[in-house]
Amino acid sequence: MGCLRGSQCIRNTPRLLIVLPSMSFGHMTSRDKLESIATNLWWTWTPDARSLFRRLNPEVYRASDDNPRAALATAKDEVLNDSSFQDDVDAVYQRYRDYMERTPQVEDAPETAYFCMEYGLHESMPLYSGGLGVLAGDHSKAASDLGLPFTGIGLFLREGYFRQSFDADGWQEATYPVLDPAKHPVSLVSEGGGDPLTVTVPIGTHEISVRAWKVALGHTDLYLLDTDFDANPDEYRPLTRRLYQGGDHERIRQEIVLGIGGLRMLRALDVTPDVYHANEGHCAFLMLELLRERLAAGDDVAEAETWVRDRSVFTTHTPVMAGHDHFDPDLFSEAMAGFRDEIHLSNHDLLGYGRVHTDDHEETFTMTVLGLKLSRAANGVSELNGHVARQQWEDLYPDRALDEVPIDAITNGVHLPTWTAGPARDFFADHIHVDLTEAQDPDDWAALADLSDETLWDFRCSLRERLLNYVAEKVQAQSLPMHLDLDPEALTIGFARRFATYKRAPLLFRDRERARALFSDADRPLQILYAGKAHPDDDAGKEFIRRIYALSQEAGFEGKVVFLENYDMEMGRMLTSGCDVWLNNPRRPLEASGTSGQKVAAHGGLNLSVLDGWWPEGYNGNNGWAIGPEPTGDYGTADPEVQDEQDAASLYRQLEEGVLPTFYTRNDDGLPTDWIDMMREAMTGVPAPFSAKRMVLDYVEEMYRHDG
Ligand SMILES: *Cc1c(COP(=O)(O)O)cnc(C)c1O
């Protein structure tokens, strides 16, 4: 069992100051308590809660991608009636109550509305496609942990994230399971318990109705907008169904729903935050709607713009110019026709908010430009990404030097309660008596340095073994046939992420024979686990998967190069907790931050990564390895072929001279002492500064708070 040891694991957690009327839960049955826990996604980052649902009906729970409602609907009576099970339910329920009643940890935090296209909350609710969504989910969960006044806005993506399978040649196929609200902890927002609450948004010359589903995320409420109901013509119903599909025509409509519809929904809910955070450009129309509100209230344009800027902050993630959402002026004018009538601005003025050069009639409307023009503060998501963003948008600020372009950086972090494996939490609680995932003080992590080599190595080996058991089970059930010859004691590398080509999944095989030599060395066994989805329209990404699959069938690689199908958050948790080394070799500077590598450190995993995204800030020379040269100022200008060649050579060198010898040099007790020292460096130094808690506190102090 996990951390059910009461106060010792939640040291430093402020206790409830207000004394609530004492409540007795005696009248609640275990089922009642579990039903109550299942309605709040708090359970998703509480391994002990998840294990209760699993015990109710392990087969059904697993088959439903760990959906508590499914487990409850088919709960076995003998489990529910078992007294030790009931004791465990009581303990978890008490922790849930304690969590919900604890006091806010930030004084006078501004009330914030957070807008994002996607949210990665849990594998049972596929409302995300990758890093942006996982980040938004982690941000919202950390906001809940800190007790911030915080409301999230997103889309109810019924078919958000496709399920990946393969044909016989290893070519990816996508199916879209439909999320059934009745089976998930979402509730349709209604007006005083009656009809669904709806708002309307103008799309072209039509009025479209939008309703919302509420998701409880600890203290935080997340509202997911939905156009897929009978008030809308068929043409408009699918707008909120899927992520990043269709052409610009669909995209701009979806973004009108998110930004304009999202703000209108907040108003209908009576939410009037102090600050609006647009996370990436997709939702930036929210700022035009704020502008419309002020103009309607009687402000002149200058006053209205000042008001909007005073309350808006913007985060950009996109390191490629072409990657910023941008719309043809004619498309924009057509899609925004109804809104233009409402805001009473000319088409030219409206277009100007999304143009670097306002009077350039050819220039497209770029969502990032809108976000930058109508916010008071903007940031990239790592120091390096901030630098790239300043280069990208330098022209917007002709009077400023490059380093004075007003785009700062707040480096992404991960929600440790979500990403720390249950056994790792137990390990921390047992050995240093702290729930490190909740710890307030980064120094708490330092205590891990005092653990013996043997203790740390046992920890590492047990997590690797747990992963390999999971892999064996997964491979049996997948459509892509995969022979396994995995060794529980062998150096295990993980590579799991979206198969966008800039991430260069096959880089390790650029020199096939050199790679084969690495995998064929019987004295230093090596194995690598791949997972990831290519965007359904990205044939080059699918080709990368097919190549890895073909390699996995070749002599010398077979059984040791493994592709796992259908990467999702569960697989992400397993891989990042179990692998010894986390490989990341994007073409710099295209990894805005990356967060998966941050997840490995708490588990004693080591990063082997290009110095891109967060890694230049995380890498200290002793806590992992760097691939390729140090970053210099001219990001993005290196010839890709040259970068590929250099980085592959560096990757081989690091594996041959660094990673493998360090792992396989053992002392008389069979322990890799230098490796374990590197684990200590990673475990003590990486998790706290790259946690979502640190990140959200930075957002509060640097972005949300405003004394203007
Ligand atoms: C952590 C995570 C991500 C984001 O990490 P990257 O390093 O940006 O790839 C994406 N998908 C899943 C399933 C994850 O767990």
Can you tell me about this structure?
The protein is of the alpha/beta class. The protein contains 26 helices and 20 strands. It folds into three domains: about 10-100, no CATH class; about 110-410, Glycogen Phosphorylase B (Rossmann fold); about 455-630 and about 640-675, Glycogen Phosphorylase B (Rossmann fold, 3-Layer(aba) Sandwich), CATH 3.40.50.2000. The protein is about 40% helix and about 15% strand. The strands form four sheets. Strands 1, 2, 5, 6, 7, 8, 9, 10, 13 and 14 form a ten-stranded mixed β-sheet that branches. Helix 22 (about 595-600) links the parallel strand 18 (about 580-585) and strand 19. Helix 1 packs across helix 6 (about 85-100) and helix 7 (about 130-145) packs across helix 26. Mean pLDDT is about 95; it is low at about 1-25. The site of pyridoxal-5'-phosphate has 12 residues, from helix 7, helix 21 and helix 22.
CATH topology of the largest domain: Rossmann fold
Rg over alpha carbons: 25 Å
C-alpha termini separation: 50 Å
Mean pLDDT: 93
CATH architecture of the largest domain: 3-Layer(aba) Sandwich
Number of helices: 26
Strand content: 5-15%
Instruction: Please estimate the helix content.
Output: 40-55%
Number of strands: 20
> What is the approximate shape?
globular
CATH homologous superfamily of the largest domain? Answer: Glycogen Phosphorylase B
- The CATH class label of the largest domain is Alpha Beta
Major sheet: 10 strands, mixed
pLDDT < 50 runs, ≥5 residues: 1-23
| Subunit arrangement of the protein | single chain
- Ligands present: pyridoxal-5'-phosphate
Summed up, the domain count is 3
| Secondary-structure class | alpha/beta
Modified residues (N6-(pyridoxal phosphate)lysine): 599
Keywords: Allosteric enzyme, Glycosyltransferase, Pyridoxal phosphate, Transferase
InterPro entries: Agluc_phsphrylas (IPR011834), Glyco_trans_35 (IPR000811), Glycogen/Maltodextrin_Phosph (IPR052182), Glycogen_phosphorylase_DUF3417 (IPR024517)
Organism: Salinibacter ruber (strain DSM 13855 / M31)
